[in-house]
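REQUEST ID: PR-0412
SUBMITTED BY: lab tech R.K.
PRIORITY: routine
TASK: structure prediction, single protein chain
INPUT:
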Amino acid sequence: QVQLVESGGGLVQAGGSLRLSCAASGSFLRINAMGWYRQAPGKQRELVATITTDGGTTNYVDSVKGRFTISRDNAKTVYLQMNGLKPEDTAVYYCNANVKQYTWSSWMDYWGKGTLVTVSS
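STATUS: complete
OUTPUT:
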């Protein structure tokens, strides 16, 4: 069993900043890539940013490049630093992790419950 718990969402004014965190818990052998997805009102879920296990490779959707930064620390927690927030960033943000749970198992994707980010005009 693998659980992902997000935190850090909230209500901010346009131009403000938030820092999202996602902590993995449960029994697993290794976490590969982790990422953040979001689903805005009336829109499909989209990938926001991903990062590899060693933190050496990151990827961002074009709309957040230069404003958002994804990172990981020694505790394998993933963060999303969001600066210059816009009303268009309003969405539920979901943490994703690609996990190898057992020695015999394949890599599997797990999801958090989401944290709401609301950016007011």
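NOTES: The mean pLDDT is 93.
REVIEWED BY: pending
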